[in-house]
Amino acid sequence: MMNAMRIGFSKSDITPPLGTELGGYAGYRPSSGVHDPLLCKTVVLEQEGGRHALIVLDLLCVDEALYLRIADAVAELGIKKERLIVSAIHTHASPRGVIPGEGELAKVNSSSAPKDPAFIDYMQKVIEAASDACRRAVESLECFQVRTARGALPNVGSERHTGAAPKGELTVLQCRTESGKLLTVYNFPCHPTVMSAANLQVSADFAAGIEELLGADLAVFVNGAAGDISTRFTRRESSFAECQRMGRIAAEQIQNVISDVPFEDPEPIRGIHTTITLNARQVESPEEAEKRLEELTAQWKAAQARGADAAMVRTLKSYAEGAGLNLQFARTMGDLRQLHLPVTVFRFCGMDFATVPGELFSALQPENLSIIGYANGYYRYIGGEDAYEANYYEALAAIIARGEGEQLVKKIEEFRQHLNQNN
C-alpha cells in the first residue's frame, strides 16, 4: 500500500559544446565529439517537514561554488541547501564542474579551472539544467514503494595500486511509483576511467547505457569512496566497447542483488547536515616540489622505455601527475591552514549514507555505510596514512593533511552513531 511520502525524478541534457576542455587527466584536452550525451539526473523526495533532492551530474567534479549556485537556483522549489546533494560521477571524458575564482579553494583551483567565457556560459547551462530537472521532478511527485539491497560488484573496479578487490559494496535503491514508473539508484566506488587520456569524445564512460540495460525509467549512478578504486587492472582495453562490457557487468549484478527483494512502504529520511573542519596539508617549497616532479617523471619514462606492463607504466605516470599537482599546490596554497567540508549523514529505509566532498579512499570506508562521493564540494583525494607513507599519487595530489582522512571518517561515524541513537 502506498504511503504519504512522494517521489519524483527527471533528467536534463548537459552535453558541452565541442571544444570544451575535458578534465581528469594531465594536459589540455579539448573535446572533439560526443560519444554519448552527458546528463543531469534529479530525484526529489517529499515527506512531512520538507523536500530532499539528489542531483547527479555527468561531470568530473562539483566544487563548492557550483553546489551553492545550484542550491540557490532550486531554493524556490522548497529545497533547502541542507537537504540538497549535488554530486558528480567523475567521468574523465567530461568537463570539470567548477566556478572559477569562487569558494574556499579558489586559489588552489586557479591554475586548473578553465576561465574562458564559453566555459562560464556552460557552467550556467549546467545550473539551469539542474534547476529545470528539479522543477520537473517536483511536478511529477507521486507516492511510491521502495526496496534496497547491498552486495558485491566484482570485475568492475579494483584497488588502483595493487589490483585488490575494493572494500566498498554495491548499494541499490529501487523505487516504484504509484503509476508504475521505476527509478534505480545504484552506488559503488570506481573511477569511470575505461577511456584513457587519448580519448577526446564526451562520454559518461561505463555509466552510459546502464539505464537502458536495467529497463528503468531513470537509472542514477552515484559514485562512492572511489579515491583508490579504478578500472586500471580490470579493463581489457580503452574503448567504448569496453565501456559497454563493464556496463553490462554492473547492470547484471544490480539486477541480481535487488530482484528478489520485495517492495515496501518507505521510511522517512533522517539526517544531519554539518561542517567538518580538517587541517590542510602543509606543502613543500616550489623548489622541492620541482625536484620531486623531475624524479618521478624520470621513473615512469624509464619504465616505459624498458617495456614494463601497461598497468605499471600508468601507475608510475600517475605518480608523476600527482607530483605535478603537488607543484601546483606548492605555488598556490599559501597560508591555507584549515578546510571546511560540508557533510551530510542520513538514514533512509534501513540504510546509512554519508556524503563526502571529494575522493575518499575505499580503504577508509566504514562497514554498512554507503558513501556518496564527489558531493557538495571537491576537496580532492582523502586517503589514509598508508597512502602518504607510500607517496602515492593521491597523497601528492591531496590538499588535506596526513591523518585527516581517518579523522574525517571518525567524525562521520560519531554523527552516524548519534543519528541512530536518536532513532
Could you please describe the fold and organization of this structure?
Helix 1 crosses helix 2 and helix 5 runs antiparallel to helix 6. It is globular and about 65 Å long. A hairpin with a 2-residue loop joins strand 3 and strand 4. With 423 residues, it is an alpha/beta fold. It is built from nine helices and 18 strands. The longest helix is centred in the first third of the chain and has 23 residues.
Tell me the layout of helices and strands:
Elements: E1 6-13, E2 33-34, E3 39-47, E4 50-57, H1 64-74, E5 79-88, H2 117-139, E6 142-151, E7 158-159, E8 170-177, E9 182-188, E10 201-202, H3 210-214, E11 218-223, E12 229-230, H4 240-258, E13 270-279, H5 286-305, H6 310-332, E14 338-348, E15 351-355, E16 359-360, E17 369-372, E18 381-382, H7 385-389, H8 393-396, H9 404-421
Parallel strand pairs: 2-10, 4-5, 9-11, 15-17, 16-18
Antiparallel strand pairs: 1-3, 1-6, 3-4, 6-8, 7-12, 8-9, 13-14, 14-15
Helix pairs in contact: 1-2, 5-6
For the structure shown, list the relevant keywords.
about 425 residues; alpha/beta; globular
Strand order of the largest sheet: 5-4-3-1-6-8-9-11
Name the poorly predicted regions. none
The main β sheet shows up as: 8 strands, mixed
> Cα-atom Rg, whole angstroms?
20 Å
Mean pLDDT: 93
User: Globular, elongated, flat, extended or rod-shaped: what is the shape?
Assistant: globular
Distance between the termini: 24 Å
Question: Can you summarize this structure?
Answer:
The protein is of the alpha/beta class and 423 residues long.
